[in-house]
């Protein structure tokens, strides 16, 4: 509202009041003074309103000036950022307090087993310590190495017992990892091979049964070489495609004599590139898998992997493997997984040999029953079927039932009973049971 409009309105009001009074009426002193006081107050209000209007105009002008200054600062900052992006990046010197112990970690597991097989005495089977050393140089460069340190009884060359004991130290894997981007990581060294998922996800205390599936003995766990691996999302619902492609030295025939490679000369982990190398051409392999989650704790993964390459030092024979793997989670309490494994290699004495087998494992945590019994809630029941055909006359079917008692999240007391049906020259005992105390750290 403008000041002129307010003044005209007040004047019109006064005229209207004058017209209402009769011409001959006499105005008293009190009425005149009241009217005069009212007009004075209205004039004062008009002056205050005019002052407020002037102050508002000044404030608007100040805000406009500040807005212009802010816009200019933003423009200058954008120009400086573009100029800095065109110059060489200067990296800040690392802080010694954050690059020593904070980026180095030791994890791993330890196990003690006690068991008995048919026609054998019960005994402590093994004591194993498997540390894994992790080092992070920066956001992109990682290093990891795992060892197996095991106490064993001494034995003579013919397999008979010798006095005393010995400690074996084996390098399980040792690889450098360089994260190229969010979807690709380069690994080099003695890398864990993605032939199925067991070597990378199920070994050690993570395995819910104390011993490995039989057919896994026909696959190498690691290999000297390099690998590209990663994952890429599919859609917006959590699906992803994981992949790995690698080249490694592969198996060897280090025990072969006179250039002849027999079936017994196959060495899955002996070719580490030392002088002399057992064969010139490395093996190539890879894995691709589809991961599909449909809600929390409910997911399915399907994968296929393989590897092929020379294994004999005379370059006459190849070793190959194909693995189909699957894993299913139905809620936080039920898990099922398994692998089908087929390998084949040429030999000089038996021709083509194709060891193959399968293992399927399921487990259920009794906490899913929602009973108020602490002992029950800490139990997980597990069962596994696995078989192996070595393609040299021996076939074994094994049925395993067992349990896991969670003393804590990382300390487990496991036990299982195994029924075996084994036929052939390398048949295994028909029954055995194993107890294991394991700790992951």
Please tell me about this protein's structure.
The chain is an alpha+beta fold. Residues 1-25, 84-93 and 96-101 have low confidence and may be disordered. Helices cover 19% and strands 46% of the residues. The protein has a 16-stranded antiparallel barrel with strand order 1-2-3-4-5-6-7-8-9-10-11-13-14-15-16-17. The longest helix has 57 residues, at 29-85. The protein has two domains: 1-19 and 35-70, no CATH class; 107-440, Porin. It is elongated and about 135 Å long. A hairpin with a 4-residue loop joins β2 and β3. α1 runs antiparallel to α2.
Widest β-sheet, arrangement of strands: 1-2-3-4-5-6-7-8-9-10-11-13-14-15-16-17
Which superfamily, in CATH terms, is the homologous superfamily of the largest domain? Porin
Taking the alpha carbons of the first and last residues, their distance comes to: 77 Å
The major pleated sheet works out as: 16 strands, antiparallel, barrel
Average pLDDT figure: 81
Q: How many distinct helices?
A: 4
- CATH hierarchy: architecture of the largest domain: Beta Barrel
Order of helices and strands: HHEEEEEHEEEEEEEEHEEEE
The coarse overall form would be elongated
- From the structure provided, what is the oligomeric state, counting identical versus distinct chains? single chain
Q: Which structural class do you get from the secondary structure elements?
A: alpha+beta
Strand content: over 45%
CATH class of the largest domain: Mainly Beta
Helicity, as a percent range: 10-25%
**CATH fold-type name of the largest domain:** Porin
Low-pLDDT ranges: 1-25, 84-93, 96-101
* Overall number of strands: 17
Integer tally of domains: 2
